Amino acid sequence: MAGHNSAPEWKTLDQDLGRFSRLEAATMYAARPLVGVGISLAFVTIATLAALILTGGEPGSLAVVAAAAFGAYMALNIGANDVANNMGPAVGARALPMLGAIAIAAICESAGALLAGGDVVRTIAHDIVDPATATDKLVFVRGMLAALLASSVWINIATWIGAPVSTTHAVVGGVVGAGVVSVGAAAVNWSTVGLIAASWTFSPLLGALVAVAMLAFIEWRIVQVEDKIAAARRWVPLLIGLMAGAFTTYLSDRALSHLVDIPFGQSLLAGVAVGCVTSAIAVPFVRNQSAGLENRNRSLKTLFRLPLVASAGLLSFAHGANDVANAVGPLAAVVYVQTHAPTTGDVAMPLWVLLIGALGISFGLVLFGPKLIGMVGSQITKLNPMRAYCVALSTAVTVIAASGAGLPVSSTHIAVGSVFGVGFFREWYQNHQSRKQQRARKDTRTMAPQERTRRKLVRRSHFLTIVAAWVITVPAAALLAAINVWLLQQVAF
Hints:
This protein has helices spanning 2-55, 61-81, 84-92, 98-116, 125-128, 137-161, 167-183, 190-223, 228-255, 264-290, 297-337, 351-379, 385-405, 411-440, 449-454, 460-488; strands at residues 120-122, 346-348. It has 493 residues and is an all-alpha fold.
């Protein structure tokens, strides 16, 4: 009898264990956001305690401690939102798994922030608000704190709704709102604000146009030719060289400008030289990698995978070098102004401040980044390594072109605009091919509305959500900053 009963008993036990395992997995999945919040709170607490210890209870230390907390919070939000633009295309194209992308981005972001992330930071208030009107130390400190907290909260909201936004624009909005309430609307440099607002339009459009041009070139010169492998051996090394040259120019002109003062012309010449050398080196690499590949589109994706991963890492390095100032620049300004006269120029970036920014961006990426990485990489439109490479190349080239022309642009807007550009080009190209085949068959029937909807390769809901978030970023951050100034006026530092 025992032998007859053992099987049902074991079966029942297996079922119970299975239910328990599913319950445990569901509990862990549900608790995962709470773990992220807990780690984030711990990081903000550690940053706050570090500031408290380093200031040693000196006069004005409360302002520095508050700025450290807000700066850590801002860095977490930048990691959660902004880094998706660098790694999203590579993940969406399946050139990198999510875990690998997060690891590479965390390393490159931290390296960029620590190695080239602003030994000198020009306070954002210098260009947005007239410094002569903010000579009072208390007014300046309150403005920086209000702007930092407001931009952090807005980026957090944007991440929650799934909209990648410009952290620079959020900080600008915060400074505008704080400046209007603190010293009056006349103190705000509205021409600079207007130029930044104009970049909402031309940044994504420029990115989209460059990405479309790159994708069209690949489509017509490589994908659609009869011998795809031979065409790839001819053109892929040139595209790799173009990427290397663009990033050399980008890094020397933007990311490394804090370390070495390099004129834009010299940065451009360095980019051309590195691009030519890299293209020559890539010729045998592409030839060896393409040996034995079938003459199919799937084979072409293999040739773009490694260059795409490298470009994603370089984008993250450059992002860490540039945008760490958005997180802790105001903190550095508060630290400086507590020991000097109110600043109207450049301020030194203490190492502990830089560490808060670098670690915060990495923690934010690891804990909350996958949501927007997945959205940018796969939920706007379908990407493969070739399309994702066009997005990365477009981002680098467009930022360089705008930098040379002296135009303020957002790398976030350019990258996301490039993703949309690639998607809309695919829609147009597919419909164009369908109409061409229809004319060849002399078919005069019109496409049904359901079929037109099915062939839309860009999700309109994401497009509208992101555009709306872009448009209201500056005014939303400004409103939040104005409220923060009023609240901080009730606190004596």
